[in-house]
Amino acid sequence: KEFQKWQSLPVKIESEERQKAMHEEAMRDARKNMQKIQYEWDKAVLERAKLVIKHKKLTDKIREAHLALIEAKIWLIEANSDVEGLKERNASIMGQLEEERRNVQATTE
């Protein structure tokens, strides 16, 4: 019986070595897959960072445009106020001119 154990030992060793080789191959494949996944993850993180930067730039442009719009609205309000002031001033001048015309007409008649 002992002799049979010794005789079967090379077969067992060969079987164990094949299993070891299969496990090592599986580990290499798993490492490759992990590296691929890590590479894809890194690419996704980099792409996300690029998109965040692009989003910030676009947000800055929107903010600048919004500020320009607010400034333009303020200018419009000021311009409308100036126009109203000029109309009032012009109305009194026009009134004086009309009165002068009437005076001239009255004196010429």
How would you sum up this structure, described in words?
The chain contains one helix and no strands. By secondary structure, it is mainly α. The radius of gyration is 46 Å and the shape is rod-shaped.
Keywords:
single chain; 109 residues; mainly alpha; rod-shaped
Choose one word for the global shape: rod-shaped
- The portion of residues assigned to helices is over 70%
Measured on Cα atoms, how large is the radius of gyration?
46 Å
Uncertain stretches: none
Helix segment count? 1
* SS class: mainly alpha
- Helix-strand sequence: H
Largest sheet: none
Distance between the termini: 155 Å
Beta-strand level of the residues, as a percent range? under 5%
Mean pLDDT: 93
Topology:
Blueprint: H1 2-108
Keywords: Coiled coil
Coiled coil: 13-40
Provide a concise account of the structure shown.
By secondary structure, this protein is mainly α. It has one helix at 2-108. The chain is rod-shaped, with a radius of gyration of 46 Å.
